[in-house]
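yo

u said u wanted the structure for the complex thing, so here. seqs first:
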Amino acid sequence: MTALFIPLVLILQCCFTATSSHPLDPLTPTEINKARLTIQKSHIGNLPNLTFHFVDTEEPEKAEVLKWLSSSNQKRSIHPRQAKVVARAGGQTHELIVDLATSSVTSDHVHTDHGNPPLTFTELFLASKLPLSHSKFINSISARGLNLSEVSCLPFSIGWYGEEITKRAVKIQCFYRGGSVNVFTRPIEGITMLVDLDLMKITVYTDRFRAPLPKAQGTDFQTPKENSNSAPYNKTKSGFLVSGHKVKWENWVFHVGFNARAGSVISTASVFDSRKKKYRSVLYKGHVSETFVPYMDPTSEWYFRTFMDIGEFGFGRSADSLQPLIDCPENAEYVDGFMAGADGKPQKVERAICIFERYSGDVAMRHTEINVPGKLVRV
Ligand SMILES: *[C@@H]1O[C@H](CO)[C@@H](O)[C@H](O)[C@H]1NC(C)=O
Ligand SMILES: *[C@@H]1O[C@H](CO)[C@@H](O)[C@H](O)[C@H]1NC(C)=O
Ligand SMILES: *[C@@H]1O[C@H](CO)[C@@H](O)[C@H](O)[C@H]1NC(C)=O
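structre next:
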């Protein structure tokens, strides 16, 4: 116990003084605002339709971060904070670097190659509402004998099928709620709309066929009310320390970040090597890179459904506040997430991440082995 106690104290001194923020810290709301104001005042600020698609910390080089981590508190230089911003203005995509100390744009690259910036929530929302006032769609719905007030339309990314540089567009598919909140259960098949996102207009409308709607009964998935109360709970003590974005647990230290694209990001994770009496770096940076969901159905209404959930929609952008005792146990600590909206202003996801300790005895996998002759092995 005594032997363990000493490194613990050292760690507390090395990593938990409030003075030094970590170079990989996500942007604070103040920094997000500063990046927005700097860009609005810059050469692209007066171009039409300035929208912010991605705003994140422009990280220092890995070697610099590692040097910062390994130097003592007193010798640590304050890292110049920079933001990287992907913005659209005047119909072009700009990749910008903003120096937050001097409030200046230090780099601007116009992206002309394949690929488009992440979709903003604002444009997805606006696109999904277009059909409801589109006369051809209104006719298609009434021809099916459906009630327009019970229709929800959703924007789907369109995939990429060739060398042409495609316009920024989404396809819209609609669903019939008809008393169910399980929107995806009841697709209104046969109708597809293409929306040009820069024009924010339906440019192609197709109504090819009709198909019966699945029934609404029994499709509800909501948590019964009595289980979803937010009564105060007794938080039990966690066995780790969270200070800003730094986490210390047993012989581990790591940094937890958040951005609109990846959601949770774990970086600079080290474990204390008790033989060498020093920390050993285990992971520089880890997050989910992409989830690619190709539906593999060749019909016109389905072939384009090849979602890139992270690159197109964003895990952080799609994050919702975690509910204590439903999503995370009572010994959890919560970290809020911040990101920029399409207007560049900071948005907060309260309790975006939770950190908790759990015993390793819980079942995490099951394996049944049938390849040992004469035996059925169950683990
Ligand atoms: C700006 O947005 C409007 C409406 O979405 C669109 O009609 C116009 O073409 C856009 N201008 C540019 C330069 O992208
Ligand atoms: C259509 O749906 C709305 C909203 O659910 C409802 O108020 C309205 O009465 C419905 N209209 C018809 C004709 O059923
Ligand atoms: C919290 O602690 C109080 C006092 O010990 C107890 O009365 C209450 O039932 C506890 N609540 C929960 C949710 O465990």
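The first strand starts at residue 51 and ends at 57. The radius of gyration is 25 Å.
cya
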